[in-house]
Amino acid sequence: MQATSALSDGEYPFTLADFRQIAAILRADVGIMLTDAKAPLVYARLVKRLRALGLENFRSYCALIATSEGADERRRMMTSLTTNVTRFFREPHHFEHLKTEVLPKLVARAKKGGRVRIWSAGCSSGEEPYSIGLTILSLLPEAARHDVKILATDVDPDILDAAREGLYPIAALDPVSQEDRARGFQHVVAASGRKLWQVAPALRNLVSFRELNLIGDWPMHGPFDAVFCRNTVIYFDEETQAAIWRRMPPLMAPGAMLYIGHSERVLGTESLKNVGLTTYQRAEAI
What we know:
Elements lengths: L5 E3 L5 E2 H15 L8 H15 L4 H8 L5 H11 L10 H20 L3 E7 L5 H13 L7 E8 L2 H9 L1 E3 L8 H7 E5 L5 E5 L1 H4 L2 E5 L12 E6 L8 H10 L4 E9 L11 E5 L2 E4 L4
Parallel strand pairs: 3-4, 3-9, 4-8, 9-10
Antiparallel strand pairs: 1-2, 5-7, 6-7, 10-12, 11-12
Helix pairs in contact: 1-3, 2-4, 5-6, 6-8
């Protein structure tokens, strides 16, 4: 297929060259790879941006995002093209392992005045870090009185705002037990009259949300006692995936756990050993 071939006969002209320029910018900025098969998705998600900007075609849009003046639009483009599929207690075996195999030691440490840190990398709209927090509260209801914190990071600033707000549709909490709902949420009614769940202070105060690009600088120092990095690096090429996995162990405490997505595998480091279903452990020495 020629790079000048039209990919859409819709409202805005869209060529393979346009798509590949957008894909190259997205990969350079945040590491996400888009194959040519994703062209219809890119068109569908970015059409609204062209309308908002009053542009006539994707060629003009590509010219804009290629300039320094287009930096803000590049961020909006990234937000539009980032996949944010998540739910509470997704892949529940990870949370069961955390609760039964990892947290008892960490809770004992916290009760003696020790420090506990867990990182949710690629936290999306907050369901993952709040699920971690609920798991902690189930064993340590007074966690807020101890040095226990969850760092939740994502590259998308808009989705982080939603996570901080902590408002979820009633159905979103279907996977959450009645006990966890009572511990971590409260009912609210939106201005529209819609009933929602909102994260309560006891849960919210455990989580700090920060913007972080996994292929950029990592300003945190750790050490983390557990890391959740699930269904995130799957969007990167193998070289980038391996580079990210190699950066994890130095930020993890000896024996700390890493939980990854069901379609992912750890590459490029011997410092993370597979100890269970999509569960890895940092070696005692690296």
